[in-house]
Amino acid sequence: MTGPVPHYLCGEWRIPADAGSVRRHAVHGHEVYRVTTTAVDAAPAFAYARAVGTPALRRLDSAQRARLTTRLARHLALHREEFVRLLAHLGASRADAAHDVAGGLDAMRHCAATVTRHLAGEGDAGWDGATADGRLFVHGGSGAPSGVNGVPLRAVAAAPPGVAVHISGFALPVTTLLDAFARAFVAGVPVIVRPSRRTAQIAVHLVRRIAECPGVPDGALQILSGPTDLIRHLGAHDLFGFTGTSATARHLRGRIAQFAAPPRQDFAADALGCAVLGADAAPGSAAFDLFVSRFVAGMTAHAGQTPAAARRAFVPATLLDSVADATAAALDGIRLGDPYATGVDMGPLVDQAHRRRVLSSVARLRGVGRTVRGTPGAVDAVARDERFGAYLPPILLAAEHAEYQEPHQVEAFGPVGTLIPYRSSDDIAHALALGARGSRAWVVTGEPARAADLVRQLAPTQRHIEVIDSSAAPGGPVDEPRYRPPLDHLTTTTIRTSARHLAAATDRWIPGAAHVHSFTHPLRRHLGDLRIGDTITVGPRTVTRADIARFAELTGDHYYLHTDDAAAAEHPFFRGIVAHGFLVLSLATGLFVPPEPGPVLANRGLENLRFLAPVRPDDSLTATLTARRITPRPGAGNGDVCWHVEVVNQDGRPVAEFDLITLIADRPAAGDKDVPHARHHHSQPV
User: Fold this and answer.
1) Residue 521 neighbours by CB under 8 Å, 6+ apart
2) Region 302-314 average pLDDT
3) pLDDT score of 148
4) Residue 397 and residue 665: Cα distance in Å, rounded?
5) Are 618 and 578 spatial neighbours (Cβ–Cβ below 8 Å)?
6) Residues 6 or more apart in contact with residue 346 via CB below 8 angstroms
7) Cα–Cα distance measured from residue 290 to residue 432, given in angstroms and rounded to the nearest whole number
8) Pairing between strand 221-223 and 191-194?
């Protein structure tokens, strides 16, 4: 398809009026499409996103947006072949194009799954699910909130009242766009995309397929395919994202730095990755061969035009020549040409302009070492042989010393790699400190002690580290996606107030908030009938010496503190027989769990268990069960309830506390009433 690439603004497609600049096929040179050269006013896009997109997205709660994101991924997967064909003009092989498309779809699924886990209180980074209306995410886990001078304090996060703007380069265009869109979409933030002119066609087609999917709110996604000044319209509550070169990132940061109230920023600029071969490897060993094959694969996949390629490879100084020879031999077998032709291993770079930039960077790198493969003469010969494509044979360099700055500061974004010798792991750490923080590193070694040492040296300067155990597995994919957390788009704030106000604001009961007692046992209620703070207190239950003995016999736990009077009397703290901690837990559970069939479907877990004081024979236990958090599972007819359990002795002293997670059914049909719990006649309000 040729012709000008349209914009999608204010809910409609707009065709540019000018002829635009030609974008040609990276392999064959024919015109593929045109991109307008006329500046586009971005003000209407921002106004539409704020006035239409934001309200439409906020009418959906977080769970609904996550489910819609999953549905969008399924919808886009139906058009996978379209996207693969459109990527061919970039010089990508079918395998590289399919990898990019799969990465984008996986990014969407990952965002949706991450939010779903957070909603259920199962996410990482301490997020404890969302409030009942799905507007706030609560931080702090199931435990008691922190506080100052006894006043509870907890962090919450919500979608800001702004717009997410994303400007992207040409590398992995499908993954980049879908990841940026999905992270903002599930957070409830409308998106405006400005793709590279090299990838405008595929970006517009992705937006077209997203916009046609039923349920996508108006204003959730817009795209400007030509020149425009998006930065000028950014406000303090907006989010500016960028994926591309470090040089462009520095320029954009400079402009944003002039703002009196700059937007939040999310830069994913090129960052030099690295690989490390452990000193335990030897030529011909599994570790050695794995390192060489993976390093070569990273140089040649996508013609090296991916942030995952390891531009620097640290190898033991004694193995430098061996690694160089093995890598050069593998690169000699790489055939250049049309990536869709039989027997071709690598296609061209995206265009001649990018090829010139790569060669400019290579010229700087050649000054600190020798060229193992890809001499200037060989590069020129390939350029003369090819009629149009910006072909570049793999270039392998070897630095003389690890402390040269150029390999750690100059990135040749193509099929280029530099071998760097090291004598100790300290050399690696000192060398990496010469450059910026790296995006990722991978290590090949078969020795756990060496792996631990290398991880400690790499961790201060690398965002992600993969350690490949050469004695256990062949290693993972060359370009494993590194998805960023979708909740980064939210803004976090803290709430400091009384326990009852904090419980109301976060939909989580906390110690100090009100208990709600009734004559119906909470575990006899269906999910929709439960409320935060629903409580029952049961007991007392006397713990006898016979109980302790029977528990020891049943479990096989004959630890002396539970069975040997003389030895237990010598214990420095307890000075006598005490009950097993898990006996206390079991007795407490027996107090509040009703025996009859009811809405409780299963126990899903136990969290934050603490044994606070010893329980001795003849102590009496009372347990209080309180609904701390209620998390419905949309469409499942059930949900998780987190119950806080406190166990006290006859003196009111807490001896244990924990959070019990149960799966509880919702009411199946109208008319099904709560069943009073008759057996536990000793249940009573506090």
Assistant:
1) 536, 594, 676, 677, 680, 683
2) 91
3) 58
4) 63
5) no
6) 93, 300, 303, 334, 335, 336, 339, 394, 415
7) 23
8) parallel
What's phi and psi for 649, nearest 5 deg? Answer: -95, -170
Q: Are strands 395-399 and 416-422 parallel, antiparallel or unpaired?
A: parallel
Q: CB–CB of 86/228 below 8 Å?
A: no
Q: What band does 141 get if pLDDT is binned at 50, 70 and 90?
A: low
Task: Please tell me the number of Cα atoms within 13 Å of 57 on its side-chain side.
Answer: 30
Q: DSSP string spanning 3-55?
A: SBPPEEETTEEE--SS--EEEE-TTT--EEEEE--S-B--HHHHHHIIIIIHH
Structure confidence by residue, pLDDT tens digits, 454-490: 999 999 998 888 999 887 755 444 455 556 667 777 7
What angle is formed at CA 193 by the lines to CA 191 and CA 197, rounded to 5 degrees?
A: 175
Condensed to tens digits (0 to 9), the pLDDT of residues 633-657 reads 877 888 899 999 999 999 999 999 9
Spatial separation of the C-alpha atoms in residues 418 and 588, rounded to whole Å:
63
Q: Is 497 helix (H, G, I), strand (E, B) or coil?
A: coil
What sign for the dihedral angle of Cα 268, 270, 271, 274?
A: positive
> Among residues 547, 526, 539, 528, which one has the least CA distance to residue 620?
539
Give the up-direction half-sphere exposure of residue 621: CA atoms within 13 A in the CB hemisphere: 28
Contact predicate 626/523, CB 8 Å: no
- Look-up: residue for tokens 């931080």? 139
Write the pLDDT tens digit of every residue in 332-360.
Answer: 999 999 999 999 999 999 999 999 999 99
Contact 496, 151 (CB under 8 A): yes
Count the Cβ atoms, other than its own, within 10 Å of residue 253.
15
Query: Which amino acid would we find at residue 341?
Result: A
Structure tokens at 192: 């405006």
218, 52 Cβ separation under 8 angstroms: yes
Looking at residue 8, its pLDDT comes to 95
Tokens of 397: 């360099």
What's the average model confidence in pLDDT over 371-396?
A: 84
Phi, psi of 502 (to 5 degrees): -65, -40
* CB-based contact 660:509 (threshold 8 Å): no
Per DSSP, the residues of 200-224 read HHHHHHHHHHHHTSTTPPTTSEEE-
Amino acid at 18: D
**Spatial distance between the Cα atoms of 295 and 311, rounded to a whole number of angstroms:** 9
Cβ neighbours, 10 Å, residue 232: 11
DSSP assignment letter at 302: G
